[in-house]
Structures
1.
Amino acid sequence: MEQQVFYRALGLSLVGGLSTALGALFVVLNPAPNLKVLGLLQGFAAGLMLSISFLDLAHNALNSIGFLKGNLWFFAGVLFFGFIIKFIPEPNFSPPADPSEKKQADDAGTGKDIMRKHRRQVFFSGIITAVGIVLHNIPEGMAVFLGSVKGLHVGLNLAVAIALHNIPEGVAVALPIYFATKSKKQAFVVAAGSGLAEPLGVIAVAFLFPSSLNPDILEGLLGSVGGVMAFLTLHEMLPLAFDYCGQKQAVKAVFVGMACMSASLYFLEVSLPKEISL
């Protein structure tokens, strides 16, 4: 691929990857984060992702390569990520137990050994979460690269949606590690590092694909990316939003996110210079 496209995709993936560091800061600066706000943010990001998946990527694939081929590519992406996710450790987004409850347990005489065991379990859950996030950030980086090949607006929209999605992931890694180690530095480093797998996805796909792709294959791959994003949204993001802020509030946030993404698609289309492909 052209160097310009590669560096654009790499920069966009860095934005998405480093947003996990924002999630870590959310924990480091405030050990008891407002989970309702986190849930609303996750619902908003889900709306962005669904809008990109169905109204942009899948829509363009259907129009470009036909209804049947477009659907086959889309559901190939769904099946691919559904298969991959079986081998990814399931992230634990649940916050650690309330400090007052832990203090009562100590006072009741259950002992420091139980607390040490609990801290080890929580620390291990944080590491497993980080591993899982690293593994599924790589396909996200690939998606940003393929979107950037299609055009600036596709790569940019994917990067923004993924960045918002990655903030709660940073919280999910940093929160248990901070609880277990009481080290803000360690929690931040592990969480921020887990997001850096996204640029690795860009580098990997840049070497896997030839310098010029058949337009139909590119549209098909982007349709598959739409399937991956739809699966990720429905499998991970919406359930988390429901848990943190309730179904009604989460659904409202989803539609706000969809409206914002639709508006961004329009304004990017009318504002970008004509020489930049859309």
Note: Residues 91-98 have pLDDT under 50 and may be disordered.
2.
Amino acid sequence: MESEMGYTIRFDSVTCVSSLTLLTHFTLISHSSPNFFSLKLISHLTSSSSLFSSTTTTPLQSPSRHKLPSATMLHHDPFVSDLFATAISGVVAFSCLRLWEETAKRGLFDQKLNRKLVHITMGLVFILCWPLFGTDRWGSLFAAFFPGVNILRMLVIGLGIWKDEATVKSMSRFGDHRELLKGPLYYAATITLASIVYWRTSPISTAAICNLCAGDGMADVVGRRFGRKKILYNKNKSYAGSIAMASSGFLASIGYMWYFSSFGFMEGSWKKVIGFLVVSVISAVVESLPISTDLDDNLTVPLTSILVGSIVF
């Protein structure tokens, strides 16, 4: 196709899925120069025209290739694109963490509320960046880089090797650096393993992270404020907190199902909605048990979500 500026735009492959058009590759070539600029805009290859679809889609195949190139968003080279995505996600996560460290340092919120705000937002904000990564296996490994670094960070601070009072204050209940070796360490490990093992195409990773972050976080916030009526088998937990956990985890899961399906990474369906409800309710029940208090709900909640999710999805 000839443009007024003397450029030719050559479309190598254009494929339509329902109402969604996937532009897989185009090259801008200048007639006046041997140099050319190439830009790949490749959308994910399993997409649905509707969020809630009962049909199953299969990956599209190029007529000239059995395997299409990795989808990239930030650069035509998948490796460079993943490097950019890693940098952006790191900046986003670090900025969010620094925000809550500053609020803790300045005493803007109660320490317990500040800790739970960190708990709720960090994981949810981080997985918002998942669509930036490529579709090959390296994408999930790049996405796990900063959560993996955070595991090491929790270890060195928790063991007292590195002093970081702002981090300790924002993530611990009682200001003891050794607390970072439990809940915060399990939290970072959950996001790391969800990235590597399940990734954004699996509802299991969505359920595990949403129930851990939104569900468990809101359980504490609501339970402390409205949890006057305690659960019979655990006086440390309340009905209000457990209801808030199941509701928040479920709604967050549905939100991220819609989010990832809008990029074509996951197909939305009513079956998944019911599955997310089952996972969130059972996770809330397990969180209310005394064993979660004795161990750590940052450990029992994601393990329950993964186990139940493996059955229902």
Note: The two ends are 46 Å apart (CA to CA).
